[in-house]
Amino acid sequence: MAYLGIILLYLACGSTILAIITGLLAIREKNGSKGALTARWSTLSTLAISLATLGLIVAFLSNDFAVAYVARHSARNLPLIYKVSALWAGQSGSLLLWLLVISLLTLGVQRDKESHRVGLGIVIDLVRLFFLLLLLFVTPPFELLADPPYDGSGLNPMLQSLGMVIHPPLLFVGFSGFLVPFALALTGLITRDDQAVWQERAVPWIRLSWLFLTAGIVTGGHWAYTELGWGGYWAWDPVENASLFPWLTSTALLHLAILPKEYRFKRIWSYGLIVLTYLLTIFATFLTRSGVLDSVHAFAGGVLGQIFLLVLVLLFVFCLALGWSRRKLLRLTDTQAGQGLSAAGTNILISSVLLLMLCAGVLFGTMFPLISRFFGAREVVLDASFFNQLSVPLFLAILFFMSAAPVLQDPMSIVRLLKRLWLPVLLASGVGAATANGAFALAAFGFGTHLPGLLVPSSTREWGAVLAHLGVLIMLVGITGSSLYVDDVFVSVEPGDTVVFGDYVLDYDGLSARYGSDRYTIGTTLAISKDSRERGTLRSEKTFWQGRNQPSTQVGIFSTLKEDIYLNLVGWENPAAQLHLQRFALVGWIWVGSWIVYLGMLVILCAQARQVRLWPKKTG
């Protein structure tokens, strides 16, 4: 299987090179038949990459420990689902998965019969060629061991969870999707598209990629909350922040797409943010794989990070030079430009600037250890308090402008504006007075402004946007509640003891143990009751693995929409146990709100699909 995988990667590499060459010839000679040949070579490359990926999965499923990558990340007793997810547990496999996603995107691009399609394919194929060269010569996934072991090292226990099955692929789809708008923008400027058709074609890809990136970030937070045992879902870790950078810029890009075509600077904003977003996905990869910053999520450092940094610099220089050389195409003339932005457009522009300010601030804080190491005598790491002080006011300002957006959609008189505002202001005043919390009041204000659009939307797209905004406001309530209203206690208990924790009574009956071939587990189950009625159980475990220094933790979580009770078994001296109990208010609202965001974006995508496809139907 390993030799077949290597052959397939070489086949993919050769086919991609031929696709690039024939594509360049097709553009130079304006030869349609060569353009069709380019698509065939690219399709062959995609097929070879798909089969190579399938081959590596088969190696995992068949316990082929002659493949070094399989031996490092799998074991015979690993459950089936984790043998599949082990594909992206390390550098080589995650790059192969990323390449597969990019390659599948090219199938959609190839269906476009417009004249720019060949140039678009060349840009994407150049990126695919870069990944193929890495997989062939820098970090090969089919490297063979001279003396294969009988069993593999196994998958990191922290990665043996449903969250890690779905979180990385979602991020890869999000990152990969932004390649298409990037390629569209470059192709549009290179071919001197004076109508900027690339802007409209990029919008559905931006929305789709943003949806997957958002889902990837949220599922990562949910994994951290349920698996790592510290009770949080966001730690301002460098690799967490790295995924946030392109999300912030793409959120600005998403809303700037709404601005009218006649806005003088729309093309400049669009090109700049498309390029910045894609470069930030590469920068995120650099942070993950370079080892320059300590992170629980990062791969080991090595030459791969240096290669990504070099590519990042080269792309930045090229995009900057291209934008400067085509600057006349990026700015409308006086005859093309409209009268200026409406109140709604100004609101979008201000919100976008705030998002970029937040991105810049988080980027500065993330990179401060390197900055302090370079300019000072020692490395200084900024803790979560810096990021919280920076992000909270900016996020609240952004959410205020988001909440105000519905009342600024149409020009209106002062009297009509007051009629639109009385309910939101009343809700905000009531909630603010009841909770003495500005974030809750802001969420109530936003709900009030969006309520008319939810009940009587003017279009399907508007209804989707309202749902997405309401989902964000619900997440705001959850983040605020789970950050401010927290109980945290450590208790030591003997069998038969009860612990009163808030409104709940927890009964401890003792410890239990399980033994396996490569692990043993110590755990406890607490019965949880409220108002003399049994409500459920909480179980927390520590698992000690053969050959690993650190145990893995399973936390117990009892969830309601009001609060979560969080149990972590931190120590024991049989039969006594030391328990860490935490209560987080409203944390469930985060996950509910995220699903409403997804639903809203899907509604927008479905509405847009009626007017414009991700790619036109193939004709001829």
What does this structure look like?
By secondary structure, the chain is an alpha+beta fold. It is 62% helix and 12% strand. It folds into four domains: 1-160, no CATH class; 180-382, no CATH class; 383-472 and 594-609, no CATH class; 486-585, no CATH class. Strands 2-3-4-5-6 form a five-stranded antiparallel sheet, with no helix packed on it. It contains 19 helices and nine strands. The protein has helices at 2-29, 32-61, 68-73, 80-85, 91-110, 117-137, 162-177, 179-190, 197-227, 238-256, 266-290, 303-325, 327-330, 343-375, 384-404, 414-435, 438-455, 460-484, 588-609, and strands spanning 486-493, 498-501, 504-515, 519-530, 533-545, 552-554, 556-559, 563-573, 576-585.
Strands side by side in the biggest sheet: 2-3-4-5-6
Query: Total strand count, please?
Result: 9
Which spans have pLDDT < 50 for at least 5 consecutive residues?
Answer: 613-620
Number of helices: 19
- The succession of helices and strands, N to C, reads HHHHHHHHHHHHHHHHHHEEEEEEEEEH
Summarize the structure.
By secondary structure, the protein is α+β, with helices and mostly antiparallel strands.
Topology:
Layout: H1 2-29, H2 32-61, H3 68-73, H4 80-85, H5 91-110, H6 117-137, H7 162-177, H8 179-190, H9 197-227, H10 238-256, H11 266-290, H12 303-325, H13 327-330, H14 343-375, H15 384-404, H16 414-435, H17 438-455, H18 460-484, E1 486-493, E2 498-501, E3 504-515, E4 519-530, E5 533-545, E6 552-554, E7 556-559, E8 563-573, E9 576-585, H19 588-609
Antiparallel strand pairs: 1-9, 2-3, 3-4, 4-5, 5-6, 7-8, 8-9
Helix pairs in contact: 1-2, 1-6, 2-5, 5-6, 5-7, 6-8, 7-9, 8-9, 8-11, 9-10, 9-19, 10-11, 10-14, 11-12, 14-15, 15-17, 16-17, 17-18, 18-19
